[in-house]
Amino acid sequence: EVVLELKELTKQLESKRVTVDEPTQFQIRLKDRGPQRECASIKVNAGQEAVIFEVSDQSGIGSGSIHLRNGRWPEKVVLRVLLSGLEGFEIKVGGKTFSGAYHGEGAPRRDNCLPVRMLDTGGRPLSGRYLIESDKSGVTNRREGYYEIEVPQALLNSEARAIELSWVDFYRR
């Protein structure tokens, strides 16, 4: 009876996404910025077929890298950027560089730009350009949400062992 319960619990756990600081499949490196280093993080949300790297930075400007320690990249690799306004980002994978910013839904993109979406916490698209809103009296509030960038699978071939990234928040400190 206990064994059956354990098997059922194990099955339930395996079907869920598990959030860990740094699973053994990935190594996260942040550029050392002295005392401000603690303000930035890249967290890993790994599932069976997808991984989401959550980038946050209180200072608003930073860089880091994600290294694949073993195996292959998951089928879907997503960067979830938790900034107030994504003024710019750069991603380097396998010698190729992509850059961009969020200019609003449907804004034209250059050739080397990856698509960026601004979403609420439920994954629904948000209007506007920033996650900061001002009311008529000038008081600002941050909307709950994030910017999302999917790394194309074509870039993540067997030779691509790292993703280097940098970011700039429009509302940097």
The biggest beta sheet reads: 6 strands, mixed
Cα(first) to Cα(last) distance is 57 Å
Q: Considering DSSP H and I runs of 4 or more, what fraction of the residues is helical?
A: under 10%
Which value, in Å, is the CA radius of gyration? 18 Å
Overall residue-averaged pLDDT value: 83
Relative strand content:
35-45%
How many strand elements? 13
What structural category characterises the helix and strand content? Answer: mainly beta
Can you put this structure into words, describing what you see?
The chain is mostly beta strands. The protein has one domain. The chain is 8% helix and 43% strand. The chain is built from 1 helix and 13 strands; from the N terminus they run H-E-E-E-E-E-E-E-E-E-E-E-E-E. It has one helix spanning 2-15, and strands at 18-20, 26-30, 40-46, 50-57, 61-68, 76-81, 86-93, 96-100, 116-119, 132-134, 140-142, 146-151, 162-169. Strands 1-3-4-6-12-9 form a 6-stranded mixed β-sheet, with no helix packed on it. A 5-stranded antiparallel β-sheet has the order 2-5-13-7-8, with no helix packed on it. Strands 10-11 form a two-stranded antiparallel sheet. A hairpin with a 3-residue loop joins strand 3 and strand 4 (50-57). It is globular. The protein starts with a helix and ends with a strand. The model is unreliable at 16-22 (pLDDT under 50).
